[in-house]
Amino acid sequence: MKKKILFILTLTTLVFVSCDKNDDNDGYAEYLVAKPLVINKAEFANSVDIIAPRPIEESGKVYTYKDYIFINDKFQGIHVINNSNPSQPRKMGFIEIPGNVDISVKDDFLYADSLSDLIVIDISNITDIKFVKRLENVLHNNIFWPFEADIVENADFDYETEILIGWKTVTERRLISEVEENRNIDIMFGDLALANTAERSTTGQGGSLARFKIVDDYLYAVDSHNINIFNISDLDNPQDLEDVYAGFDIETIFNRGNHLFLGSMRGMYIYDITTPDKPTLVSEFEHGTACDPVVVDGDYAYVTLRGGNGCGALESGLFIVDISDIANPELAKTYPMDEPYGLGIKDEKLFVCDGKSGLKVYDKTDIEDLKTLNHFKDIVTFDVIPLESHLIMVGDEILYQYEYLDDRIRLLSQIGLN
Q1: pTM to 2 decimals?
Q2: Is residue 379 situated within a structural domain?
């Protein structure tokens, strides 16, 4: 039985952002188009595989563990890169995981989402990665709408035998008049065929856009509404615990001490994990509606808000929130940005991935007067991880690494992922 899933944009702001910038005399303009990715259900159930390095289709989030960098290929899997020499990173292989967006690693066990399933993989021998376990239907509300897209194409597939695992976004020229015809039509959803729905430990480090976070013996995985909690004291046999409802449009998670900081389209939520299997809400900071990640350092939380897209807001910026009183966070300062995504902090340096406006580096010693240290223009940036020795950044299918200098940073290496 064929089911046609029709997606029609109602947000006129999305459409005209592209048109205004790329309007052509021939009646065409460039649009960001999301195309459905479909897989056979039988293949999905047995789909985790380790293969040779392959070109990346659309770079997603970045994660580091020991001498390795893991880069998500949106909804496809994970690229593995040997980074023992940051000046010459080397591609090693690709872990196929359909529907994958996030990962986290502890003591050589990698945890990854595959739509609503949690996958466990043994990476103790990076040249002989082994699939360990699949926990089915433990991640809820884990299917993400492609908010960045101007156009979302129809998903036409066999509902009985196939499954929609995500979207691939590409830039295409489309006839402006045809796009305008649909701008006031409601979005219509059919029945989406999604998946049923003693020694010191070593954990990896994700960027600010991460939805997975390991704290001691627990893995916290946020979806659009909940904190999904797993006890991973038995690393190869995680236990699915009771979820904690956290609100709407949750996007990212950050940990500092006994607190989780959740970034959502509506604000920042702070949870206490003194009792790790039962996070409790401490406070929240509302900022309107926008896409945002959050990082924390000292008495301040740094939040980037990205507008001009399906997240709702029209303007973008960096919000600095005073959390010295954790129960009463207050806005301290805002700075305008163009289209910010991830951000990170190393000592007094603040790194902001400002999309097509490049990587911006600030001295945050005085939050009332951020000083620009570097601005790497003419590159597209997505997310960063500030390591002790150097900075890792991914964007536009390129992995960049920068070395820290006293008052600035300098490019150390870059490698194309295509």
Answers
A1: 0.79
A2: no
